[in-house]
Amino acid sequence: MQTTSSTPQPRIVLPARRLVLLASVASLGAAVLFGGPGVETYFPFTSSASAQVSAEHAARPTGFADIVERVKPAVIGVRVKSEAVSQREQMQFNSEDLPPGSSLEQFLRRFGMPGMPNMPRGRQFSMAQGSGFFISADGYAVTNNHVVERGKSIEIQADDGKTYSAKVVGTDPKTDLALLKVDGRNDFPFVKLGDKQPRIGDWVIAVGNPFGLGGTVTAGIVSARGRDIGAGPYDDFIQIDAPVNRGNSGGPTFDVDGNVIGVNTAIFSPNGGSIGIGFAIPSETVKTVVAQLKDHGAVTRGWIGVQIQPVTADVADSLGLKNAQGALVAEAQSDSPAAKAGIVSGDVITSVNGEAVKDARDLAKKIGALAPGATANLAVLHQGSEKTVSVTLGDYPRDQQARRGGDSDTSGRSESHLGLTLAPAGSVAGSGGKGVVVTAVDPDGPAAERGFKTGDVILEVAGKAVSSPAEVRTALNDARSGGKRTVLMRVKSGEATKFVALPLGRA
Description:
This protein has ten helices and 31 strands. With 507 residues, it is an alpha+beta fold. It folds into three domains: 279 residues, Thrombin, subunit H (Beta Barrel), CATH 2.40.10.120; 94 residues, Roll (Pdz3 Domain); 91 residues, Pdz3 Domain (Roll), CATH 2.30.42.10. Strands 2, 4, 11, 12, 13, 14, 15 and 16 form an eight-stranded antiparallel sheet that branches. Strands 25, 26, 27, 28, 29, 30 and 31 form a seven-stranded antiparallel sheet that branches. A six-stranded antiparallel beta barrel has the order 5-6-7-10-9-8. The longest helix has 14 residues. The N and C termini lie far apart (69 Å).
């Protein structure tokens, strides 16, 4: 039996930067974000509004020592012993090995990922480290799922240097959160999850153990909210610029009142170190997930069974919508709650229980926040008319691995103004019997710019089912004659179905 003690390669690599999950190996660490300069700078103002802003700034502390002294004891290091993956079991993450159109395939296309380093043969163990924080005096603590997901044993190191064994109460991979429990004491120092959403520009502070340097304090501001970095279906990250590094995963981000506003989980970086772009899971998400993990050991989410996509400006124009908002239904799964309620492809869901849906991600969050079995009233735009649909939510099913379809080089009818070569799907092996298959794509054409690739199957054009290149051309001409500048196509790509808006141009 061997034990390894080395820092792994960053999980995600960009061409010029990396998205790095912040857990590291072989050095115990905990981090927290917190921000604010030590010295205030004041500028002369003339208006009364400016004077009020100056007065508010003057009320801010010139340092954060008192706050750090209060919250720092609740921050912990999380040390995880796990069995390393053998050389035979290693998986090289390559976009060619993934189902086309899958979320992971899209993520890798966008960010890239290196192969995992070679590892010695035989049974191995490694020690990984991350961060966390107590949320109750009786020993409940929050960290990231990716810190503990392969752990054989877990121990935490408190701020006073004492170590304790911990057990995993539950994990939620979709939000990358985990809840731990440390027994034996009822007087652990703890911090509170904040109720108030931070504003862009608010100060934040990080307190933790980057690279095993315990008790490190860094400061910065909230750089952005609502970031989608492709990590999962419920991405809604707070972007911060307080320096966080390896070992910070699972550590809290604090506001100037000492409340936790987020849990650190990833950074963009060219070399694995901080460049001032970090991401934290918002406290409102943490509250919801932790409550279910504590009560049930797992998270259940509402599910309606639709494939959705954003309503872009082109899509809105194609559907005659005034505003590019809402969630476009690419497909309602057979026998799903949505299908039973009468929702079909081409519908746009604009609100849930009276709350406006900004985009597809917002719809996923709103539905996921509801319990299975609950009834949701959805406002739907169906073929130009608004209606309200009541849907009884199902339980979110486990993800299924998509089967990969084969490409084809069968030639067919060319739609040169779109940059597509088409053939009836029934004439191309493996393409199914419905629709028109794309057999070639001009890399410089408008279709390529919008993501078309060989093997995609066009099912509908402007709401009309098509089964031959001639029917595609007729539908395009009809849309053009009707004054449309763009046309909406329903396309099957791999196992996913989506809508794509293409500019019509000239025939």
